[in-house]
Amino acid sequence: MDAYLSQEAYQTLRALSLISSQSSSDGLLIGHKRGHRYFVEKIFPTLKGFFPSREKYFAINELLEEKILGFYSFAKDEKKNKKILTAFAHGKLFLQIRLNKSKKMNIKPYIIDYENKFFLSPIQLKP
Q1: CB of 53 within 8 A of CB of 82?
Q2: What total number of domains does the chain contain?
């Protein structure tokens, strides 16, 4: 399994990294899955966390024609990122983004998986 990040999606993440003074923004990944590859086409920033409630997540997913592919986070707080380790997120993509001192992005892709408990399983990222 791997993930492909479109130029538009990468540019949006890069822009968010430049304007966020706290580097703590989160959001949704919009795209599709074909075979064993996740295609991230767009980025949808969210206001607080990934979503305010499970019901609103499902409403947003329906509005976006079931194209929520996963989640991203610039947050360094591991407890915050564990909010997505739930049943409805199983099989979704998660991009953990860290910024170094010069604001260069380090993107680590994971699949939200389950085996007696939910966990993040690392995969490859194709630029």
Answers
A1: no
A2: 1
Other beta carbons within 10 angstroms of residue 92's beta carbon come to: 20
Query: Is 78 strand, coil or helix?
Result: helix
Question: Which tens digits make up the pLDDT trace of 99-110?
Answer: 887 778 899 999
Q: What is the mean pLDDT of the chain?
A: 87
Q: How many helices (H) and strands (E) does the chain have?
A: 3, 8
CB 76 within 8 A of CB 102: no
**CATH code (residue 46):** 3.40.140.10
Q: Name the token pair of 11.
A: 């540019």
Rounded to two decimals, the pTM is 0.90
> Angle at the Cα of 59 (from 65 to 108), degrees rounded to 5?
70
Q: Is 71 helix (H, G, I), strand (E, B) or coil?
A: strand
Domain that holds residue 53: 2-126
